[in-house]
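Run log // design_07
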């Protein structure tokens, strides 16, 4: 896409995530204009239009929005069950798309999306794995790529949430939470994850509806890098996401940005985030800015996740669920990366 002043964007889905993205694109993303909110619920659609500060038009479906024209790109923030149909329609329309994870709900449908994009012959779909845009994780990856402390050997990951979200089950611990670690481990290691093991132990009394929480995963990459992953969605304390990378001659930790520290009454206090909204606000901002800059033809180009990366993560989630049920290691057969998905620098 040639350089232009503004990219006209349609946002699909006006739930919590969609509204957050509409506000971000409207208020803090240079060169972006939300021109369409696509949401079957008229009430939520109206809130989406209001969040765009009146720049957007509400459409009940994607087909009518595309038919009206005037759209340069799209953001998919609808529930995962609706992603595949939207992505095929957007590919047919030739519209660059930033799709929140998951790419689709299963590997078969994700493969159909990838095959469709390969048939078109160019990358249009990006997948919203926002941790790739966090300063700490980017610094950690730079150390790994430079081999400053030798080869990467181990990754220790933790993913904690104060309370288990309503409606979550054992599968969602992997599909919705551990999926982030599955992507970031492959990204940090610079190679795919080829096996996963899942271990259940003593469950927290704060876990609801019979969900086994916390769980531990063991991921193994192609060259043998091991990553242990704690998923603890009922921690009660705070939202905590961190990764320690262990190298041959040192280690590096990507942790929460330092918040204000208060000294009072002989005690030291530091604020911690209660949700992903605060912890990764800057990463989301950078993700959307770099995506829009790439579409405008300015900046260093888009370096986020591709549809192929999205497929690999969906396949690994399926393997993780199988491993949790069987108690055995589940292997993932990783094909050679197609040429249009050659890893960007």
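design_07 sequence
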């Amino acid at each position: 896409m040639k350089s232009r002043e503004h990219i006209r964007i349609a946002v699909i889905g006006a739930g919590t995530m969609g509204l957050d993205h509409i506000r971000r694109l409207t208020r803090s993303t240079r060169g972006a204009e939300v021109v369409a909110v696509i949401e079957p619920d008229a009430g939520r659609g109206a809130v989406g239009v209001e969040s765009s500060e009146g720049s957007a038009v509400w459409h009940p479906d994607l087909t009518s929005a595309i038919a009206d024209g005037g759209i340069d790109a799209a953001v998919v923030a609808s529930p995962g069950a609706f992603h595949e149909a939207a992505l095929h329609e957007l590919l047919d329309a030739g519209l660059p798309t930033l799709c929140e994870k998951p790419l689709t709900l299963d590997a078969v449908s994700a493969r159909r999306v990838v095959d469709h994009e390969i048939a078109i012959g160019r990358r249009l779909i990006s997948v919203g794995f926002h941790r790739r845009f966090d300063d700490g994780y980017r610094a950690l990856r730079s150390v790994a790529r430079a081999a400053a402390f030798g080869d990467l050997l181990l990754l220790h990951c933790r993913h904690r949430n104060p309370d288990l979200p309503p409606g979550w089950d054992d599968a969602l611990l992997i599909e919705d939470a551990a999926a982030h670690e599955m992507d970031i481990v492959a990204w940090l290691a610079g190679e795919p994850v080829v096996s996963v093991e899942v271990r259940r132990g003593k469950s927290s009394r704060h876990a609801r509806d019979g969900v086994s929480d916390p769980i531990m995963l063991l991921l193994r990459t192609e060259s043998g890098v091991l990553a242990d992953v704690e998923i603890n969605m009922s921690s009660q304390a705070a939202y905590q996401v961190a990764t320690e990378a262990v190298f041959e001659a040192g280690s590096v930790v990507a942790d929460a940005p330092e918040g204000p520290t208060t000294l009072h009454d002989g005690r030291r206090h530091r604020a911690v985030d209660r949700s992903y909204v605060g912890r990764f606000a800057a990463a989301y901002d950078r993700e959307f800015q770099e995506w829009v800059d790439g579409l405008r033809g300015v900046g260093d180009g888009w370096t986020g996740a591709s549809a192929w990366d999205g497929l690999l993560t969906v396949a690994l989630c399926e393997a993780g669920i199988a491993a949790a049920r069987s108690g055995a290691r589940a292997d993932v057969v990783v094909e050679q990366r197609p040429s249009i998905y050659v890893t960007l620098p």
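Residues 306 and 342 are 10 Å apart (CA to CA).
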